[in-house]
Specification:
single chain; Arc Repressor Mutant, subunit A; 10 helices
Length: about 210
């Protein structure tokens, strides 16, 4: 990363010890970092969205991470968001990704996964798809009937056990199917799978 760009990573987490640890880790990796204990403090600071990334805890007291994400959208602030959470909350993860989050990491956070998520968020930045790109239907993917149901469930934010109950299958089978879907869609994370799955599900929806 070039020094002249000086992107700022804004860490919003109410856990002071974790916030400090993340800021120290990112600072040692060469990033410029700012920290905030909550959504309100971040909004009051009104950081410049031109260059930077928001590392945002999902479970904040008061307005939570999703509330802050929505507030930024209303304010027209296009800063890319990487969510972090102690819980694998699939419905909220899907909501965050659909709302434009760049990635979603689980605590305890792996340093290399964190750096990769931030670099990707900074690289993608705030580029909006053109009208042609937004309307483009993805290349056909060879999915069987079960995989199509599982994909729809994922995009809807449903839990593995809920999808398993609908198909009268075990959760293990659904997890295996999800792994196959990640391979077929070339998704490198659950967040990436949701992003790749949504236009496919939309294209398969009845008119």
């Amino acid at each position: 990363m070039s020094d002249h760009a000086e992107p700022v990573i804004h860490v919003v987490d109410d856990d002071a010890a974790l916030r400090t640890a993340l800021m120290r880790l990112l600072s040692h990796a060469g990033f410029k970092v700012e920290g905030y204990p909550g959504a309100g403090e971040f909004l009051v600071a009104a950081p410049d969205a031109a260059q930077g990334c928001l590392l945002l805890d999902l479970e904040l007291p008061g307005p939570d991470g999703l509330d802050l994400q929505r507030a930024l959208k209303r304010l027209g602030n296009p800063m890319p968001v990487v969510f972090i959470s102690a819980h694998h909350d699939i419905p909220k993860t899907v909501m965050a990704i659909k709302a434009g989050a760049s990635d979603f990491l689980l605590k305890p956070i792996d340093a290399q996964a964190l750096f990769a998520a931030i670099e990707n968020a900074l690289a993608v930045g705030t580029v909006e798809p053109t009208a042609d790109e937004a309307a483009c239907v993805p290349d056909p993917v060879d999915l069987n009937a079960r995989e199509r149901v599982v994909l729809r469930g994922i995009v809807a934010g449903r839990l593995n056990k809920q999808i398993a109950a609908e198909l009268a299958l075990s959760e293990r089978t659904i997890k295996s199917c999800r792994a196959d879907l990640m391979r077929k869609l070339h998704a490198h994370s659950f967040a990436d799978l949701v992003r790749r799955a949504e236009p496919i599900v939309r294209a398969q929806a009845p008119i």
